[in-house]
Design a protein that fits this description.
The complex is a heterotrimer. By secondary structure, chain B is an alpha/beta fold. Helices cover about 50% and strands about 10% of the residues of chain B. The chains are: A mainly alpha, B alpha/beta, C alpha/beta. The interface of B and C includes residues 163, 185, 213 and 216 of B.
Chain lengths: ~190, ~280, ~675
C-alpha cells in the first residue's frame, strides 16, 4: 500500500471535517462570507479568516480560533453559506468551534455575556421545559451582574402583558431532565 | 372546520403573545381550529444549537414526536425561529437513520418524521389566501416594508421557502389586502437575533440599519413573521434610535396583525396595544 | 501452419533494465509455431526494422510479434516494415513490454515472467490474424461550417483559400458573432469591428464560400467524407435577390421598441431589421414574433415603402440539402442570464450590467456612441465597480470552471472607462488575476499602475440600490477580510461564459459528445483539440469552452487545416478495424437474425440494414450491415449481438479467446 502518499490528518481542521463534514480546504478565500456577514466588523476574525486559519493547520492558529470572540458573535444567520460559491457550511463550523471551545474551557472573556445568556436560557428550559423569560433575565443578571440593564423595559413588558410571573411548565419534566442528562450534561 | 396542529413556542406565550393572539384571531375568522401539541416544550432556540448538537435536535424532536403521538400530520409554527429549528431537525433526522434512532432513544419516544411543518405564511397560503378577498372590510392602505429575516428563508436547501434573495411571498400576500410593499434592500439581513439581551448594542446597529432602510424607502410600517425580529425592531427601538442618533417611530406589525386589521378584527384582539412602538393605524 | 517471428526490443534501457529481454526472446523461441526469435536494442530504428524485414524473407514468416512499446507509438512503423517485406501489415502485432511491464514493475523474475506471458498471448493471437486492407472512402470536398462568428469566419476563409468549397450557416441575420459586438480588444486595444468587418466582407465575396444566414442545421446524416446536411433557412420575409438594402423599410417600421440583440438589450431595433450597420449581408429580415402584420394581421408598411418590391410576407421556411465531406462546429458561447445573480440585482437594477453590455456602451457603434453613460438615466457614472468571477468558479450555482476571458476583459473595461471618464473611479473585485498570455499580465499591470484602477481582492456579497446609488458590499481579503462598502453609479458583472442554448440539441444532431456544461467535447484534451469523437466533425472557438479571440482564431485555423488535410486526399483510407456482420452460404446468408439490438447499441449510428433478395426481388431476409465509413470499431455491437454474428476485424472473438487461452493454458 502506498501509505506514504496519504498524509495523516490531524488538528482542528481534521476534527471539523470529521464532525461536520465541512472540508476547510474547499475554501478558496474569495471573502464573500466576510463581505456579507452582518457582524463581520465586530469580529476579531472575519469568517473567511477563520477558514484560512483552519487551512494553515497550525496549533497556534487552532488555539486562536478557540479563544476568539468571532465564534460567539456568529449569529447563525446563514448569510455566508447561502451565498458561498463553494457551499461551505460556516455556521456549522462555528457551532463546532463553540462546543470545542467550551469543552476545552477556552471561551474568551469577551464572550462571557453571550455564553451567560445561552446558559441562562438552557437553565430555564432544563428546569421548566420551556423558556421562562422573567427567570431567564433574572438568571442572566445574576451571572453577568448587569443588574441595571433593561430596568425600564421589564416593567413595561409586564404592563403590556408580555412577562409572566409564574413559569409555564412542561408536565413531563422528568423527560426533559433526561434529555439534558443524556446530551449536554453527559459531556460537561 | 379545518384542524391543524399548533406549536406556539415559548415567545408566543410570553413576550410576543400578541403574535399568538393575532394568529388565533385570524384562524377563527377562517374557521380554522388550532390544536396545541399537548405538553410541548421549548425548541432550544439558538442557545441549544450553540452549545450542544444532540440537545439542539432532541428538544425539537420531542415536540414533533408528541405531535405524531397525537395523530397530527400537519403543524403550524408561527415563530420563525421555532419553524427553523423544527424544520432543520426534521431534515437532519430524516437524512440520518442512525441519528434518528439515537435521538428517539434520548427523548424516550419514537419519532418517524411524518409531520408536515408549516410556517405562518405557508399556512395562510394554504388555507386563507383564496378566501381573503371576500372578507376585507378595511384595506390596509399603507406602504409596508416586508421583513423576512434569516430564519424563514435560510437554509434554503432545507426550508425550500420562497427564494433566498429578495423573497416575495409576504409582499404578495399583503398586496391582497391593499398594502403597498416597498422595494428595499434589507429583507433578509439579520436583525441581531438572539443577542437581544446579551449584545443590545449589536442589535441596535443591525436592526438600526434595517429600520433605517425601511423608513428611507417610504414605508409606514414594517411587517414581520418572527417574534425575535419583532422584539429587536420594536422593543429594542431605544437601542436602534441611539445607534441612528435619531428617533424613528415606524411601527412593527406581525403579518397576521395586518391581515387581521384588514378583516376588521379589533385591535385588542390582535394585541396591537402590546407593542412598544405605538401602532397608530 | 503458421510461421511466427518474435522481436523483443530493449527500448534502450527502458525495458531491458527491468525485464530480462534475452530470456524473453529465448522463451518465445520455444513457443509452438515460433520459428524465429531475437532481441535488439532499438527495434524501431532502421537496423531494427531491417532485422524484421530480413527475417520475414529468410524465414518465410506468416506473422510477426514485436514486443516493445505502446502500439499507439509504433504500430504503424512495424506494420509498414512488414508490408515492405511483403507481409500484410495486419499480420503484425505489438505487445507493450514498456508501459504494461517494465515501467510499472520492479526488476524481478516475475516481471520477466509477465513479459513472457504477454508475448505468448500475442503469438497465439497473431496466428488467428487475417490479412486486412484499408477501407477506401470517397470524399465530398465541401465543408459545412456551423456558426458565423470569428471562429466560423476564420475557418471558412482558411478552407476556402485552400481551394475547397464551404457552406457557412449562421442562425442570425448577419455573421460577425460576439466579436462584432466588442469595443476594443485586449491586450492591444485595437477596434474589434475594424479588424473583423473586412473578414466578414471577404466571406461574403469569396467564390468558394456559400453564405446562408438566418438558417440552422436541421439534420446531419452520413459519415466522414460523405455527410448529408439538411439546412433550415428561416423565412426572411424579404427576397434578398431583389432587396437593395436601402433601409427605407426599417426606417418606416412602426415596431421600434424591440430590444436589440446586437446591443445586448441596451438599444432597440425594429421588426424588419439588419442587426447592425456593418452587417453581412446588409439586407433585412422580418422578425415575425415582433411584426405587427404577423402578430395582428395589419401593417405591411414596409411593403408599401419598399421600392424594389422585395417584401415577401408569404415566404416560408425552406429546407435545403447539401452534401459535405466535413463539418466544423463554431457556434460560440453565451453569457449567464439575469436570474443567475439575485444577490447582485442583475435584471432588477438597470445599472447593473454584464460585460457584454459594457462592450456596447464602450463601442463607437453602440447606443451611446462610445460614451460611458449608465442605462438608467444616461448620466456618466463617476464610480464604477467591476465584479470579476460573476458566476464563474461558483459550484453552488453550477459553474465550476473559470471562464478564462473575464480577467482580461475586466481589466480592459476598467481601462476603457478610465480613458473615457478621466475623473471617474473604478474598482475591480477579483479573486485571482488570470492573465496568462502574450502581453496579458503587462496589460493588467497597466490598468493598475497607469490607469489607477483599484483592484480589491474579494468577492462581492451583495449589491443593492439606494438613492440612485448602487451599494456594493464586499470585503478586502488582503486586509484580513475587512468589509468594504462602495457607493457606485454602475456595476459591471464579468458574467460567466456558458454554452449556447441549443448546443445540446445540435450535439445530438451531430452525434458528437458534449460535457456537463454542454460545451462540445474535443476528441482528446491535448492531442486532438479540434477533432470530435465523430470522424469528420471538427470544433473551433468558444463552443468547446470559453476562450479569447487569438485562441479562437488559432483553433479555427487548426480545424481548417484538418479539413484541408482530409480534402487533400483522393480517397479516405481508414483502418479496417471495424465491425463486420458474418456472411454464410445460402440459404442461411448470415447467422444474423435481424433483431437489430446492435442498431440500438451503436453510438455512431453505423448499423444499417441489408435486404437479401431472391431472383424475383422478393426479400428473403433482412440483415444488419455495418457502414464502413461510420464504424469506429468500438465493439459495443459485438457485446450486444445475441447470435455472435458481429465481429471486429483485428479483434475478433477468436483472436481474443486465443490470447486468453494462451494465458490460462500456461
Amino acid at each position: 500500500m502506498n501509505n506514504h502518499l496519504h498524509h495523516e490528518e490531524r488538528g482542528l481542521a481534521a476534527d471539523v471535517k470529521q464532525t461536520t463534514s465541512v472540508a476547510a480546504e474547499k475554501c478558496y478565500q474569495c471573502g464573500k462570507c466576510s463581505a456579507g456577514c452582518p457582524v463581520a466588523s465586530e469580529m476579531d476574525l472575519p469568517p473567511s479568516l477563520v477558514m484560512r486559519m483552519l487551512q494553515t493547520n497550525r496549533p497556534e492558529n487552532d488555539e486562536k480560533l478557540l479563544r476568539s470572540k468571532t465564534i460567539w458573535l456568529c449569529l447563525s444567520c446563514e448569510m455566508c453559506i447561502s451565498r458561498c460559491p463553494m457551499s461551505i457550511d460556516i455556521p456549522k463550523v462555528m457551532d463546532f468551534l463553540r462546543r470545542r471551545s467550551r469543552d476545552e474551557g477556552k471561551v474568551t472573556d469577551r464572550a462571557k455575556d453571550i455564553v451567560a445568556f445561552h446558559d441562562s436560557f438552557l437553565l430555564s428550559v432544563e428546569k421548566t421545559g420551556k423558556l421562562y423569560e422573567l427567570g431567564l433575565i433574572a438568571a442572566y443578571k445574576m451571572k453577568t451582574l448587569h443588574l441595571m440593564q433593561d430596568v425600564t423595559v421589564a416593567p413595561e413588558m409586564i404592563q403590556k402583558g408580555k412577562l409572566h410571573f409564574i413559569p409555564e411548565m412542561v408536565k413531563n419534566r422528568k423527560n426533559i431532565a433526561q434529555i439534558f442528562k443524556k446530551t449536554i450534561k453527559a459531556k460537561n | 372546520m379545518i384542524k391543524i396542529g399548533f406549536y406556539p413556542g415559548c415567545s408566543l406565550t410570553g413576550s410576543s403573545r400578541e403574535y399568538a393572539e393575532s394568529v388565533i384571531a385570524l384562524c377563527e375568522a377562517f374557521n380554522i381550529e388550532l390544536k396545541q401539541i399537548p405538553d410541548w416544550n421549548c425548541c432550544g432556540a439558538t442557545a441549544a444549537h450553540n452549545l450542544d448538537k444532540e440537545l439542539s435536535l432532541a428538544l425539537p424532536a420531542r415536540i414533533l414526536a408528541l405531535a405524531e403521538q397525537n395523530g397530527m400530520t400537519e403543524i403550524v409554527v408561527p415563530c420563525a425561529a421555532c419553524y427553523n429549528r423544527l424544520s432543520v431537525t426534521e431534515h437532519t433526522l430524516n437524512a440520518d437513520e442512525q441519528l434518528r434512532a439515537r435521538i428517539s432513544e434520548i427523548i424516550e419516544m419514537p419519532y418517524e418524521g411524518t409531520v408536515k411543518i408549516l410556517n405562518v405564511i405557508q399556512m395562510l397560503q394554504k388555507y386563507v389566501v383564496n378566501e381573503l378577498a371576500n372578507k376585507i372590510v378595511a384595506p390596509f392602505d399603507h406602504k409596508v416594508a416586508c421583513y423576512y429575516g434569516c430564519l424563514l428563508v435560510r437554509p434554503h436547501e432545507i426550508l425550500q421557502f420562497d427564494r433566498v434573495e429578495d423573497p416575495q411571498t409576504i409582499d404578495e400576500m399583503l398586496k391582497l389586502v391593499g398594502a403597498q410593499p416597498v422595494d428595499w434592500a434589507f429583507k433578509t439581513e439579520c436583525c441581531g437575533a438572539g443577542f437581544s439581551v446579551s449584545q443590545p448594542d449589536i442589535v441596535g446597529k443591525l436592526s438600526g440599519k434595517i429600520v433605517k432602510d425601511a423608513v428611507d424607502r417610504g414605508a409606514e410600517a414594517m411587517v414581520v413573521a418572527c417574534p425575535m425580529c419583532h422584539a429587536n425592531l420594536d422593543m429594542r427601538r431605544p437601542a436602534i434610535n441611539s445607534y441612528l442618533k435619531t428617533t424613528i417611530d415606524i411601527p412593527v406589525l406581525y403579518v397576521t396583525q395586518v391581515l387581521g386589521l384588514a378583516l376588521g378584527i379589533s385591535r385588542e384582539k390582535l394585541g396591537l396595544q402590546r407593542h412598544f412602538v405605538p401602532v397608530k393605524f | 501452419m503458421s510461421r511466427i517471428g518474435v522481436f523483443v526490443c530493449h527500448c534502450g534501457e527502458n525495458i531491458s533494465a527491468t525485464v530480462d529481454v534475452e530470456k524473453v526472446a529465448q522463451a518465445a523461441a520455444g513457443f509452438d509455431d515460433v520459428v524465429h526469435s531475437v532481441d535488439y536494442k532499438y527495434m524501431c530504428s532502421d537496423p531494427g526494422q531491417t532485422l524484421i524485414k530480413q527475417a520475414i524473407k529468410e524465414h518465410n514468416l506468416t506473422g510477426v510479434v514485436v514486443a516493445a512499446c505502446s502500439p499507439r507509438m509504433h504500430e504503424p512503423t512495424f506494420r509498414k516494415a512488414c508490408a515492405e517485406a511483403g507481409l500484410n501489415g495486419y499480420m503484425c502485432e505489438m505487445t507493450n513490454l514498456r508501459e504494461h511491464c517494465s515501467w510499472v514493475h520492479d526488476r524481478t523474475e516475475e516481471t520477466t515472467e509477465k513479459a513472457i506471458d504477454l508475448v505468448r498471448m500475442l503469438v497465439e493471437k497473431v496466428k488467428n490474424n487475417k490479412p486486412l486492407e484499408p477501407i477506401l472512402v470517397p470524399i465530398t470536398k465541401t465543408a459545412l461550417v456551423i456558426g458565423g462568428g470569428i471562429a466560423g469566419i476564420q475557418t471558412s476563409l482558411d478552407i476556402a483559400n485552400c481551394g475547397h468549397k464551404v457552406i457557412l450557416v449562421e442562425k442570425e441575420p448577419s455573421i460577425g458573432g460576439h466579436m462584432s459586438q466588442l469595443s476594443e480588444t485586449f491586450p492591444t486595444l485595437d477596434c474589434s469591428q475594424c479588424i473583423l468587418t473586412p473578414r466578414m466582407v471577404e466571406v461574403a465575396q469569396h467564390p468558394n464560400i456559400e453564405l446562408i444566414t438566418y438558417a440552422e442545421l436541421d439534420s446531419l446524416e452520413g459519415y466522414i467524407g460523405n455527410f448529408k446536411a439538411k439546412i433550415r433557412k428561416k423565412a426572411k420575409s424579404v427576397d434578398h435577390s431583389v432587396c437593395t438594402g436601402c433601409g427605407d423599410c426599417w426606417g418606416k417600421c412602426p415596431s421600434k421598441k424591440i430590444p436589440s440583440e446586437f446591443n445586448a438589450g441596451l438599444g432597440s431595433r425594429t421588426a424588419i431589421y439588419v442587426p447592425f450597420p456593418q452587417a453581412v449581408p446588409n439586407k433585412p429580415v422580418i422578425d415575425k414574433s415582433n411584426c405587427n402584420y404577423y402578430q395582428k394581421g395589419k401593417c405591411k408598411i414596409c411593403e408599401k415603402f419598399c421600392k424594389p418590391g422585395a417584401i415577401r410576407f408569404d415566404q416560408e421556411d425552406e429546407i435545403v440539402e447539401a452534401e459535405v465531406g466535413a463539418v466544423v462546429v463554431t457556434t460560440g458561447f453565451d453569457v449567464v442570464k439575469p436570474e443567475f445573480f439575485p444577490e447582485y440585482g442583475y435584471g432588477k437594477y438597470k445599472d447593473v450590467i454584464t460585460g457584454l453590455q459594457f462592450e456596447r456602451l464602450a463601442s463607437a457603434s453602440g447606443p451611446t456612441l462610445g460614451e460611458i453613460r449608465r442605462p438608467s438615466d444616461e448620466k456618466v457614472p463617476e464610480k464604477v465597480v467591476f465584479i470579476a468571477c460573476a458566476g464563474s468558479r461558483d459550484p453552488a450555482k453550477g459553474i465550476n470552471y473559470c471562464s478564462k476571458i473575464c480577467c482580461m476583459y475586466t481589466a480592459k473595461h476598467a481601462m476603457l472607462y478610465q480613458h473615457k471618464v478621466h475623473t471617474g473611479k473604478s474598482f475591480v473585485f477579483y479573486m485571482d488575476i488570470r492573465a496568462a498570455g502574450k502581453n496579458y499580465d503587462e496589460f493588467v499591470r497597466r490598468a493598475i499602475e497607469e490607469d489607477k484602477v483599484n483592484y480589491i481582492r474579494g468577492r462581492v456579497s451583495t449589491v443593492y440600490e439606494k438613492d440612485g446609488k448602487l451599494i456594493v458590499k464586499g470585503a478586502d481579503t488582503l486586509m484580513n477580510g475587512e468589509p468594504i462598502e462602495i457607493e457606485a453609479d454602475m456595476v459591471v458583472l464579468a458574467s460567466a461564459g456558458i454554452s449556447n442554448p441549443g448546443s445540446e440539441e445540435l450535439a445530438q444532431k451531430l452525434h458528437v459528445s458534449y460535457d456537463r456544461y454542454k460545451f462540445f467535447a474535443e476528441a482528446h484534451p491535448k492531442l486532438k483539440p479540434v477533432e470530435t469523437n465523430t470522424a469528420g466533425i471538427f470544433l473551433a472557438g468558444a463552443c468547446q469552452a470559453p476562450k479569447d479571440i487569438p485562441e479562437t482564431v488559432g483553433m479555427a485555423s487548426g480545424a481548417a487545416s484538418k479539413v484541408a488535410a482530409l480534402f487533400s486526399q483522393p480517397e479516405l483510407k481508414r483502418e479496417p478495424l471495424i465491425a463486420v456482420v458474418n456472411r454464410q452460404m445460402p440459404p442461411v446468408f448470415s447467422s444474423c437474425v435481424g433483431c437489430f439490438l446492435c442498431e440500438t447499441a451503436c453510438p455512431y449510428n453505423a448499423i444499417g440494414r441489408e435486404e437479401i433478395k431472391d431472383r424475383n426481388g422478393n426479400v428473403i431476409k433482412t440483415l444488419a450491415r455495418v457502414n464502413e465509413g461510420l464504424c469506429q470499431g468500438c465493439g459495443t455491437c459485438v457485446a450486444f449481438c445475441r447470435t455472435k454474428s458481429i465481429d471486429i476485424q483485428g479483434f475478433s472473438n477468436e483472436q481474443m479467446y486465443s490470447e486468453v487461452m494462451a494465458l490460462l493454458n500456461d
